[in-house]
Amino acid sequence: MIGGDGIGPEVVAEALKVVRAAGVELHTTDFDLGGARYLRDGTVLPDETLDELRGFDAILLGAVGTPEVKTGVIERGLLLKMRFALDQYVNLRPFSLPAKDIDFFVVRENTEGTYAGEGGFLRKGTANEIATQGSVNTRLGVERVVRYAFELARSRPRKHLT
Question: Range of 63's domain?
Fold first, then answer.
């Protein structure tokens, strides 16, 4: 469990209540990671902690980051480092609105595309400053996400993929 910052610990605590109320027995380990930790001692995600995280079945991560930490430090040093090191290549976003008979998943790539970090600035600091952002997509990266999406669609009642 990584509660994180701001509303993160509160959201994680409520998520645990819901899971336990559903009858799931959990054994948890808390990790103090996020913007507040970085401000205290400069730690983002040590390799030893990453190795320890590899041994768990799941990681529940709350919101991380705080305005006092420069943008990108926590995003690259914690979120992206975990994604890449643990090969968390699927970004799965479920959405359900039973009253309208809406039930779907958005499946996105989570370690390539814009997450590859290709981009930068031209003429930085001038009136003609330009920001660029590239998207790097390998055959392996695209294929495994598409396969995941097809398998997910196959397991669903409507068996529909868009």
Answer: 1-88
Encoding tokens for residue 29? 């380990």
| Structural domain ending residue among the three candidates 88, 104, 135 | 88
pLDDT tens, position by position, 84-100: 999 999 999 999 999 99
Q: What is the pLDDT of residues 99-119, one digit of tens each?
A: 998 999 999 999 998 887 788
> Which tokens sit at 130?
């330009």
Pick the closest to residue 68 from 6, 122, 120 (CA basis).
Answer: 6
Q: Is 154 in the same domain as 94?
A: yes
The label of the residue with tokens 């994680």 reads: 12
Distance of alpha carbon 14 from alpha carbon 131, whole angstroms: 39
Kindly report whether the global pTM for this prediction surpasses the value 0.85: no
Residue count of the chain = 162
State whether 63 and 6 are in the same domain: yes
Q: Are strands 119-122 and 90-97 parallel, antiparallel or unpaired?
A: unpaired
Q: Encoding tokens for residue 113? A: 């595309």
Query: What percentage of the chain reaches a pLDDT higher than 90?
Result: 86
Task: Look up residue 96 and give its two tokens.
Answer: 């359900």
Number of domains in the chain: 2
**What are the Cα distances from residue 47, in Å, to 50, 82, 110, 130, 133?**
5, 10, 21, 35, 28
